[in-house]
Amino acid sequence: MIDFSGMSSADFLEALKRGTDCMWPLEAAVWLLERTGVWLEDPRLRQYVVGGIRHEDEVWAGFEVPRLRAAIEARELGDHGEELIVLCFVLSLYGNFPISLRYDCWGLSEDVVQLMGKALLIANGYAERD
User: Fold this and answer.
1) Residues facing 63 on adjacent strands
2) Could you tell me if 67 and 50 are in contact, meaning their C-beta atoms sit under 8 angstroms apart?
3) Residue ranges in the chain whose pLDDT is less than 50
4) Distance between CA atoms of residues 3 and 38, nearest Å
5) Residues contacting residue 120 through CB under 8 Å, at least 6 positions apart
6) Are 95 and 114 in contact (CB under 8 A)?
């Protein structure tokens, strides 16, 4: 098992990118994490990440969505606010993690809502990642 706690944020991000397997929704989730700057530096998230090593010693990473759901529900990752909503949105792109756009996204900053909109476009193959 790989310990992601000592990885730099840049290396962690690269491992998450390699873990997307070129699937648009996963790429969109990682893109949103990178663009918002939320969670990549937070050590609490890394304990819910699994990964492995591919050819050429490349480390990949991915989220354990059920464990993250339990942690969010137990408020182990903080109170309900913009940063946590971004993570929930990321997880909704990543796997089986439904959210209510009406209730969960109400009151978010315009910048975050625009990034979430672009992430949806990326997840559906309509936008390029920049």
Assistant:
1) 49
2) no
3) none
4) 20
5) 28, 93
6) no
